Amino acid sequence: MTKTLIAYFSRTGENFVQGTIKGLEVGNTEIVARKIQEFTGGDLFKIDPVVPYDDDYDICSNQARQDFQNQARPEFKNPPATLKEYDTIYLLFPNYWNTMPMHVWTFLERYDFSNKTIKPLVTHMGSRFGTAEIDIANVCKGARVLKGLAVLGDLANDSDAKIKSWVELN
Ligand SMILES: Cc1cc2nc3c(=O)[nH]c(=O)nc-3n(C[C@H](O)[C@H](O)[C@H](O)COP(=O)(O)O)c2cc1C
Prior knowledge:
Elements: E1 3-8, E2 13-17, E3 20-24, H1 28-40, E4 43-46, H2 57-69, E5 86-94, H3 102-110, E6 117-124, H4 132-139, E7 144-145, E8 149-152, H5 160-168
Parallel strand pairs: 1-4, 1-5, 5-6, 6-7, 6-8
Antiparallel strand pairs: 2-3
Helix pairs in contact: 1-5
C-alpha cells in the first residue's frame, strides 16, 4: 500500500492579489494541488464546502471568522467512506485566521490518520502556517506529520521548483 492522496481546500472568487482585490477562477491552493498531483500521480480530493463561503471577500471573511470563533465543523461534499488505502496524505489549505479553514478540521477529525504520513502545505498572505502545523499534530494523533511548506498565495504559480523539492523530501 503506497497510495498518495492530495486533499485540499481552496476558494474561488474575490481575493487579494498583490494588494488588490481580484476575482480568481482557480484558487491559489488549487493551483498548488494540481502541481503536486502532477509531481506525485496521487489522487486529488477537494474539501469542498456543502455551503460555500461567499464570492465577496468581506462577506467570506466574516463567515469564516464566525466559523472559527464558533469552532464550527462545517460539512464538505462527498466525504470518502475511509482513507484506508492511502499511506501518504498531502494536506493543502489556505491560512484562515491563523489556522486551517474549519472544513479542514472536519476532514481531519473524521478519519483515522494513525500510522499515516501527513505533509501539510499552506498558502498564505504573510502568516505562513500560524498554528496549523501544531493543530494538525494535535488532531491527528499517531500520524507522522512531516515538515510543512508555506507558499505565498501570490506566488502559487511561480513556486514549482520549491514545491517539487519539498515533495521529494521524506
Ligand atoms: C477568510 C480568510 C482569512 C484569511 N486569513 C489569513 C491569515 O490569517 N493570514 C494570512 O497570511 N492569510 C490569510 N488569508 C489569505 C489566504 O490564506 C491566501 O490568500 C490563500 O492563498 C488563499 O488560498 P485559496 O485561493 O486557495 O483559497 C485569509 C483569506 C481569507 C479568505
